[in-house]
């Protein structure tokens, strides 16, 4: 069987996903194009050798419509013969792109492929693609869920209540995210994964959403973000613990990973950083939609023949603080191995790009610590999750 390896993984530094954010003046096509070009240039790869580019993007409307992956490939100056496709598995879109890319290599469909992702939340607001339409159908879905599905913020509230995660615990974890991310940045731990991008006023190379001064005391003063009387009546266990401070911020960013067969990497004189070891994707309760990470983790560990203690580093997307906390409690993961350089609460969550961001950070953590196996998992809208295990080489 062909071994799929990741030769390199890069990302932009995060920008606040609102007007005036560091990357808000950069069109998402150009944002992704810059990242793709930087990836091949720093690895000395002729882009004509790339057989496909698979890019994640969640809100595929407005500036991100009409197959943004292909538009970015052309904007990057790649040969016109390089194809591209855009995928949407909600927050896990670029992780799914990496799954598809690596699985294509393993199957023999590709020798060299790029998995990427992009989201400009300052220019393309969440939900834009569904404006004027009804994404939930003509009544069959409502017949299955007569009380209706709920937005992710309320799912986070339900998880907090049902796993007994109080406000203090959520805020402590969130402050940790900022502290670890700020420390990693100060130590240069992100330097290898971040590719600078030219913006008005110079180069952007530092995550704009990380706040080194964040404290538990400061977070405790923030008001809940999702208070709703109707939801309170439907779910009386909810007591409103989710705030902007223990949630991931709206963010702009892009990511890209160079994936190929180990044989082709060796022939090109490239040194693989890790091999893909196992993959899993699963569906789960769409009300507790953020907890699909638990069955996905169990499934990928079983496929890999590994136990939770065999994993040296975890990247669990911090869409909301209760997700990694409840996940760790359910699967028995060592909390010290989780998001060692902070997570999305600090670094940001540019939806379609986040899976690639996790991969680039996970590679760096494994290399810095000498760890062998790394596991990353992403919760996704609609009650889904991806999980994969990589092995450092």
UniProtKB/TrEMBL annotation:
Q: Which Gene3D superfamilies match?
A: 3.40.47.10
* Annotated catalytic residues: 91, 349, 379
The record's section on InterPro entries has: Thiolase, Thiolase-like, Thiolase_C, Thiolase_CS, Thiolase_N
Q: Where is the Thiolase N-terminal domain?
A: 5-263
Q: Name one Pfam family in it.
A: Thiolase_C
Domain Thiolase C-terminal: from-to ranges: 271-392
The record's GO molecular-function terms, alphabetically, read:
acyltransferase activity, transferring groups other than amino-acyl groups
Q: Give UniProt keywords alphabetically.
A: Acyltransferase, Transferase
Record-stated family: Belongs to the thiolase-like superfamily. Thiolase family.
Q: What is this protein called?
A: Acetyl-CoA acetyltransferase
Q: Mind giving the lineage of the organism this protein is from?
A: Bacteria, Bacillati, Actinomycetota, Actinomycetes, Kitasatosporales
């Amino acid at each position: 069987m062909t071994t799929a390896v990741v030769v390199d993984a890069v990302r932009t530094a995060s920008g606040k996903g609102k007007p005036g954010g560091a990357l808000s003046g950069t069109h998402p096509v150009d944002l992704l194009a810059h990242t793709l070009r930087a990836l091949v240039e720093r690895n000395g790869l002729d882009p004509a050798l790339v057989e496909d580019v698979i890019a994640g993007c969640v809100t595929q409307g407005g500036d991100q419509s009409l197959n943004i992956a292909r538009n970015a490939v052309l904007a990057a100056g790649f040969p016109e013969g390089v194809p591209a496709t855009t995928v949407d598995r909600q927050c896990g879109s670029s992780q799914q792109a990496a799954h598809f890319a690596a699985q294509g290599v393993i199957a023999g469909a590709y020798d060299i492929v790029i998995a990427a992702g992009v989201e400009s939340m300052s220019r393309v607001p969440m939900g834009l693609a569904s404006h004027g339409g009804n994404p939930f159908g003509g009544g069959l879905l409502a017949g299955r869920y007569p009380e209706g599905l709920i937005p992710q913020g309320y799912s986070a509230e339900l998880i907090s209540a049902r796993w007994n995660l109080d406000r203090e615990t959520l805020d402590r974890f969130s402050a940790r995210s900022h502290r670890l991310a700020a420390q990693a940045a100060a130590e240069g731990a992100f330097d290898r994964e971040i590719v600078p991008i030219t913006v008005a006023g110079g180069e952007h190379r530092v995550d704009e959403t990380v706040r080194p001064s964040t404290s538990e005391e400061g977070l405790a003063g923030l008001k809940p973000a999702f208070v709703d009387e109707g939801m309170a009546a439907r779910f009386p266990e909810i007591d409103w613990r989710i705030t902007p401070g223990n949630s991931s911020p709206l963010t702009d960013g892009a990511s890209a990973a160079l994936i190929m067969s180990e044989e082709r990497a060796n022939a090109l004189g490239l040194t693989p950083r890790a091999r893909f070891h196992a993959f899993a994707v699963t569906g789960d309760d769409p009300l507790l939609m953020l907890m699909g990470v638990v069955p996905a983790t169990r499934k990928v560990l079983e496929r890999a023949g590994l136990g939770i203690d065999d994993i040296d580093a975890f990247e669990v997307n911090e869409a909301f603080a209760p997700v990694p906390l409840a996940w760790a409690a359910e699967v028995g993961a060592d909390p010290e191995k989780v998001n060692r350089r902070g997570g999305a609460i600090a670094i940001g969550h540019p939806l379609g790009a986040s899976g690639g961001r996790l991969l680039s950070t996970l590679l760096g953590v494994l290399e810095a610590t000498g760890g062998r196996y790394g596991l990353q998992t992403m919760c996704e809208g609609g009650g889904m999750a991806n999980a994969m295990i990589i092995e450092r080489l």
